[in-house]
Design brief:
The complex is a heterodimer of chains A (286) and B (158). With 286 residues, chain A is of the alpha+beta class. Chain A folds into two domains: 167 residues, 2-Layer Sandwich (Uridine Diphospho-n-acetylenolpyruvylglucosamine Reductase, domain 3); 108 residues, 2-Layer Sandwich (Enolase-like, domain 1). Helices cover 34% and strands 26% of the residues of chain A. In chain A, strand 8 and strand 9 form a beta hairpin. Chain B folds into two domains: 76 residues, Ubiquitin-like (UB roll); 70 residues, [2Fe-2S]-binding domain (DNA polymerase, domain 1). In chain B, helix 2 packs across helix 5. Chain B has 158 residues and is an alpha+beta fold. The longest helix of chain B is centred in the last third of the chain and has 16 residues. The relative contact order of chain B is 0.16. Chain B is globular. Classes of the chains: A alpha+beta (286), B alpha+beta (158). The interface between A and B is medium-sized, with 26 and 29 residues.
Chain lengths: 286, 158
Amino acid sequence: MRYETPTTTKEAATLLYKEKGQAHVLAGGTDLLVRLKMGTIEPDLVVDIKHIPAMQAISKSATGFKIGAAVCGAAIGEHAALKKAWPGVVEAANLIGSDQVQGRCTVVGNLCNGSPAADSVPAMIAAGAKAVVVGKDKRRTVAVEKIVTGPGKTSLAKGEVIEAITLPARPSNSGDAYLRFIPRTEMDIAVVSAGVNLTLQRGIVKSARVVLGAVAPTAVLVTNAAKAIIGTKLDEAALEKLAAACSAACNPIDDKRGTIEYRTKVAGVLAKRAAKIAYQRAGGTL
Amino acid sequence: MTGVLVSTTINGDPVQFACPTDEVLLDSLRNRVGLTGAKEGCGTGDCGSCSITLDGRLVCACLVLGVEANGREIGTVEGLVENGKLHPLQEKFIEHAALQCGICTPGFLVAAKALLTKNPNPSEEQIRYALAGNLCRCTGYDKIVRAVQAAAKEMRKK
């Protein structure tokens, strides 16, 4: 196994592109090293991206925030300005694993691992986050919801790496929230999850994005759920419509952690609760 | 052995070792450096027995490659003792009998120290959340939580 530590994203992309055998990106390693240990992967090349300056920082500009692909979950939680602007994204990122895992895991890793239950993904999609994708010859910016195509599968071409995640500038009176259901209080994988991001104008929902996790092969952006609350003050009728739209969008698996029926019902319940939190964070009163 | 030379700092001391690229840091620490405090429980980041700090951040040594340690600073349970004196957390773990078989203890100590560095006065709930990544199959956690609270109190006096 070759281990490389490039210092630019382009160099990383070129290394990955040129490798004829199995090549993997190493960010936090909290998924990669488990797969290595289990023997489910036998990489010929591992590219450690933690020496690339462009991937190491969280920055704020007029266009919003940029989170480098090598920034760990704990660092995201420690960033006061990011937490203030995007509390839902930060709480979702901080739900990944234990404190030990937080010291290593990244949101880009969480995304590219392709788990339908990835915690940070619904919150990022709800936020309208974009991925900065770098190949050996060109860069492109892609909506986060276009990255994962199925469990463990992404739309990234050979040699492409995600350098950073961008979050748009925040209009005033905006709020986001992420909730997941797990059978215990900490350290578990979402049975169902919901991320809601909205902006208010005089207490009325002007725009919204509602995303569900763990109820389909990928996170689901539920446009009908957003439509159900846009133009409302999040009254009971709007919340019921939101829940119904969420349940209708579910296509979950049946397993020991949750049945299809259970996940379908809970998706609506969690979306309602997350919407209420986002609404209050946006300055609305329920 | 084909290995990569790794130069790192462990508990403040410069250390060099050579390891294969696919070896995890836990194995490097235990088998090459001779620091056997960090234990392998699950080997997949679930149990926290191999907790160490890497550039000050709490991590599982089983989820870090040995080669990643190059140029970084590692802290292990062996670094808790200062001038031959046990750390207050170690004293309180003994006093409260917060261990039985002891396999999880080094991980709990390192994780608890990381918590108290960030938050010298944690609530019981904060302690339980912070130690959620450390599994103990003997004590039922209560004595561990009491020991951490007692150590925090002791450390605040200083």
